[in-house]
Design goal:
The protein is elongated and about 90 Å long. It is about 50% helix and about 15% strand. The protein has 15 helices and nine strands. It is α+β, with helices and mostly antiparallel strands. Strands 1-5-4-3-2-6-7-8 form an eight-stranded antiparallel β-barrel. Helix 2 runs antiparallel to helix 3.
Length: about 500
């Protein structure tokens, strides 16, 4: 790069592990720069291989070598993931990538398809040829020779595509991805949306569509549905790959998505090879490949379609882990809670159907500093005890939580006798948000709270909640839990 101030590969390796906790605009750029760097390295290795140049001279190892195939595979993976990241994080990238760049990357991807497909098909024939019936085996050898003749022409096309579509845009794209503007409201804490929260939203939004597409995979002929599932899994893996090894739940979902993508890819590859066999008038091989596609399809349905709830649970656990990484903080790193609160007319039926958590809260005596004790009893009977301090304005305040033992909680609880609250909490997850519906047990009061990722985060009221909202009471002291506790002196 001509500009020495731009990020180097070493810089990226140091920054990428912390991308989840950085602002969404920065995290998205770090991941995109990571895949752009991987693609650039593969491009450089492709040149060193001496792959046939546009003039047709072959100065290197020749097409079809294992090294060439490996390099092209790495280039395709990096390119595919770069394109997926640019699409999935379009809002966070905020105009850093123009349509010209996207068209160039798409053209490069199309130019590599033939080489990739030919390499995969030749590898498959080499590995499986001995398992085929005699007639199909003879036809497979004839198809192998046809693919060999096509490979050299395809490699030349890839070399031309790199020169035409990648080389002119790489420096410009690197420069644009290396900077961004972050808007900040004067007088308010600096709380940009963390990349982990943005990523959680992108991952979760795919869940309903993924389930729908899986439900449409009903036979080996469900090509369109299988294609949609495979593309969704590719995008999930592209977004999560840099963090899969460091986050267990992300890694579990990434591995599951990898297995699913591999099985669907095997179905697709067998189908493509069967089409080649049909074009070459090799009927026995065409029939044998149909049986191979069916076997991979059946493996996929057993592992995925028949266990769809387990699949979606793995995805949900990945989202939960991302949310844990996305808690906003002040510039000094102190945890910050940003929330909105709504007064409800009554409990929405959707919330009432969720088993409640019993929450008991009490405040120790104090004026400038008041410590809160909280005991939560989950529907299955498990109990968690916490100590908590909040400081600052209602909309965005510092919140410090600390788990405590039941013994210490019980010892301190009598000190809160003058300021307690008991309520049932129904938690309803909707898109990227968890809506907490609190039903107070000592008065006729129902409140809804939602925790946000930043001051500019403005989620629309869900359809199941909106009809029951009286008004937004965020910042109204009368609805602070600590004020409500002062008003109730008779709780035990």
């Amino acid at each position: 790069m001509a500009d020495g101030s731009l990020l180097t590969a070493t810089d990226l390796r140091g920054l990428l592990p912390e991308a989840l906790r950085r602002p969404a605009q920065e995290g998205a750029r770090l991941v995109a720069l990571h895949w752009l760097g991987q693609l650039g390295e593969a491009r450089a290795q492709w040149l060193l291989m001496g792959v046939p140049d546009p003039a047709g001279t072959d100065a290197g190892t020749g097409s079809g070598s294992a090294s060439e195939a490996d390099i092209l595979h790495r280039a395709r993976v990096a390119l595919r993931r770069l394109r997926a990241v640019l699409r999935e994080h379009e809002t966070a990238l905020d105009g850093a990538v123009d349509q010209r760049t996207l068209r160039s990357l798409r053209a490069l991807g199309q130019a590599t398809n033939d080489v990739r497909d030919a390499d995969v098909q030749r590898s498959w024939l080499d590995a499986e040829m001995e398992q085929l019936p005699t007639v199909a085996r003879d036809e497979a050898m004839r198809l192998r020779a046809i693919l060999d003749r096509r490979a050299s022409r395809s490699s030349t096309a890839v070399t031309r595509a790199f020169a035409k579509h990648f080389d002119p845009i790489v420096d410009r794209l690197h420069t644009r991805l290396s900077t961004y503007l972050l808007l900040h409201r004067v007088g308010m804490p600096a709380t940009p949306t963390p990349f982990a929260r943005h990523l959680a939203t992108r991952v979760e939004r795919a869940s309903a569509r993924l389930r729908r597409d899986l439900e449409h995979v009903t036979s080996v002929g469900s090509r369109d549905a299988m294609h949609r599932v495979r593309i969704r899994l590719k995008r999930q893996r592209a977004m999560l790959a840099p963090f899969a090894k460091s986050r267990p739940a992300l890694g579990a979902w990434y591995d599951l998505a990898t297995r699913g993508q591999d099985l669907l890819g095997a179905v697709r590859d067998a189908d493509l090879l069967a089409e080649r066999a049909l074009e070459a008038k090799l009927p026995a091989l065409h029939h044998a490949l149909g049986a191979v596609a069916l076997a991979h399809y059946q493996a996929f349905t057993v592992d995925w379609c028949a266990r769809i709830d387990r699949v979606m649970q793995s995805l949900e656990m990945a989202v939960v882990e991302l949310r844990r990484d996305s808690a906003p903080t002040t510039e000094a790193g102190v945890p910050l809670e940003i929330e909105r609160k709504y007064l409800l007319r009554r409990v929405p039926p959707v919330a009432a159907a969720v088993p409640p958590i019993l929450i008991e809260q009490g405040w120790l005596p104090g004026s400038a500093l008041r410590e809160r004790l909280r005991r939560s009893t989950n529907p299955e009977g498990t109990v968690a005890c916490w100590r908590n301090v909040k400081l600052g304005p209602a909309q965005a305040h510092i919140e410090i939580d600390e788990g405590t033992s039941r013994e210490l909680f019980e010892a301190m609880w009598p000190l809160t006798a003058g300021a307690r609250v008991r309520k049932h909490r129904h938690v309803v997850r909707d898109a990227a948000y968890a809506w907490e519906i609190d039903v107070f047990l000592d008065r006729d009061l129902v409140l809804a709270e939602v925790e946000l990722s930043g001051l500019d985060d403005r989620p629309a009221l869900p359809e199941w909640l909106a009809p029951y909202v009286e008004r937004d009471v965020t910042g109204e002291p009368a609805y602070f839990n600590s004020v409500l506790a002062r008003a109730e002196r008779s709780l035990r």
